[in-house]
């Protein structure tokens, strides 16, 4: 069972599909999704509308691929983390920092597009499945940290997950946002929310950064 | 200098303008802003399109009023808090909890609409001015708490403000979100982010709730 035809570029990684995605991200986030036509995307990418449709079945397929890129790398990293046996707080720090880094890097802050009413439907099922999987991995790490009582695990996970996602709000609110600082700050904040004492942070942070190679800004 | 004509209902508080706002919130958040016409709003509200235009100059004016309602009450509360002289951490707890409560209560989670590219422009200047004012009051409280060093005040304020706003993300992510729990959780989390030790929370929270009358769920 491969990836459904309509959710990704026909020629993944080809220059043309990358140019289509970049143009679409710019337009969706400046003109709105409803206000953007595949014609306008083709124009901005400097190709024909036929060529857009050669790479993507529809405008929804372009949006779907942009959305998947805001979550897929974090899902893959989370899968690695979940199967590791080192300190769960350290792994949670790594996941939050990695995920924040991904959201900081998305072109035109495409993460905001997930709040569109248009993305709620079944057509974006794969995206929703990936997000659920990521969220469930966050929950496992919160739980495995042993710092949260059972009856609070869902509430704390909800807050940690939203804290990481709030990077998309900060990119909108703070024009001079400093990426590497946000990444560190997000990892640290998540640990405070699960009950880590402030004085424990430097050791956990340093270990997480070394073990998982998260060195923002270097 | 009164409120500009186009940003609020002509007859504030009238049943008809409230019905228009409720119908618009439902449609904007389910069909998208671009996909909603004043005709559709009139239909859902059960009135004529002419009557919509009697109350609001344009679709933008309706959106503007909905956006202002997600921020104006918090701005008013913040103004009270800023002029008080009790413990700043207590006042910050109160502002975060109040603001979270407001975002939890907005019909159809209208807070999400501020992420639309459409709202970035000058037409929504009053809304942006109110948000800047609120943000600046958050900054004052973070600073007055005496718990954050000068060179971290902006970064910590950015994170606290985004944490509160992330209530709109949680409403989207967590269908069974429990309002009163989120309100308390948000106040507590903000204090952890400014450096409050966990063992200090119960006293500050109780005082803040009593002094400012924030008793979610009661």
User: Structural class, from secondary structure content of chain A?
Assistant: mainly alpha
What Rg of chain A is obtained from the alpha carbons, in whole angstroms?
19 Å
Biggest pleated-sheet summary of chain A: none
Give me the number of helical elements of chain A.
Answer: 11
Q: What separation lies between the terminal Cα atoms of chain A?
A: 39 Å
Assembly category: homodimer
> Would you list the SSEs of chain A in sequence order as H and E?
HHHHHHHHHHH
* Helix fraction bin of chain A: 55-70%
Number of strand elements of chain A: 0
Shape of chain A: elongated
Q: If interface size is counted as residues with C-beta under 8 Å from the partner's C-beta, which chains form the largest one?
A: A-B, 39 and 39 residues
């Amino acid at each position: 069972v491969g990836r459904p035809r309509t959710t990704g570029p026909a020629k993944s990684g080809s220059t043309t599909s990358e140019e289509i995605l970049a143009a679409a991200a710019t337009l969706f986030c400046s003109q709105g999704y409803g206000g953007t036509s595949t014609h306008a995307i083709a124009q901005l990418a400097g190709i024909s509308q036929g060529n857009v449709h050669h790479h993507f079945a529809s405008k929804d397929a372009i949006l779907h691929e942009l959305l998947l890129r805001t979550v897929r790398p974090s899902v893959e990293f989370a899968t690695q983390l979940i199967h590791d046996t080192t300190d769960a707080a350290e792994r949670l720090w790594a996941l939050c920092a990695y995920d924040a880094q991904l959201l900081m890097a998305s072109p035109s802050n495409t993460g905001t597009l997930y709040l569109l009413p248009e993305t709620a439907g079944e057509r974006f099922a794969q995206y929703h499945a990936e997000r659920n999987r990521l969220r469930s991995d966050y929950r496992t790490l919160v739980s495995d940290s042993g710092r949260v009582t059972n009856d609070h695990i869902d509430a704390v996970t909800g807050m940690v997950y939203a804290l990481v996602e709030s990077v998309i709000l900060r990119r909108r609110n703070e024009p001079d946002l400093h990426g590497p600082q946000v990444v560190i700050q997000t990892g640290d904040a998540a640990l405070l929310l699960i009950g880590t004492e402030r004085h424990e942070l430097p050791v956990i942070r340093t270990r997480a950064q070394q073990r998982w190679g998260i060195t923002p800004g270097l």
